[in-house]
Amino acid sequence: MDILKWIQSWYYENCDGDWEHSYGVRIDTVDNPGWSVEIDLTDTYLEDVPFDSIEEERNEEDWFYCIVRDGVFHSAGGAKNLEEMLNCFKNWASSLDRS
Questions:
Q1: Sign of the C-alpha dihedral, residues 83, 56, 64, 41?
Q2: Which of 42, 49, 62, 92 could serve as a FRET partner for 68 with CA atoms 20 to 30 Å apart?
Q3: Is 66 helix (H, G, I), strand (E, B) or coil?
Q4: Does residue 99 lie in a domain region?
Q5: pTM of whole model > 0.90?
Q6: Residue 44 carries which DSSP code?
Q7: Dihedral sign, CA of 11, 42, 16, 26?
């Protein structure tokens, strides 16, 4: 569950009194069953950073994809892939030099 602590920290670091009123992090369930993640990148250090889309389809229940479109990190995946989806975002965001 360390990924949840990391996402909490990332969210908190971007809260500046304005950003959190228009943007944020959304984690939801989908009916196939699975997960959906949307993370707003507008006004963050990730806003203009290229992202190489990822698509993993191991079987009907073990799959996920991650893309960035229109300033939002989007991910969807199977019911047991949420941690992997969030780690995809973490690995990308953590790999960048923020200076």
A1: positive
A2: 62
A3: strand
A4: no
A5: yes
A6: S
A7: negative
Backbone phi, psi, residue 3, to 5°: -65, -35
How many domains does the chain contain in total?
1
> Whole-angstrom Cα distance, residue 46 to residue 43?
8
pLDDT in tens, 12-55: 999 999 999 999 999 999 999 999 999 999 999 999 999 999 99
Residues 6+ apart with CB under 8 A from 71: 40, 41, 42, 47
DSSP reduced 3-state for 55 = strand
Mean of the per-residue pLDDT values of the chain: 95
Separation of alpha carbons 66 and 60, rounded Å = 17
- What is the span of the domain harbouring residue 56? 2-94
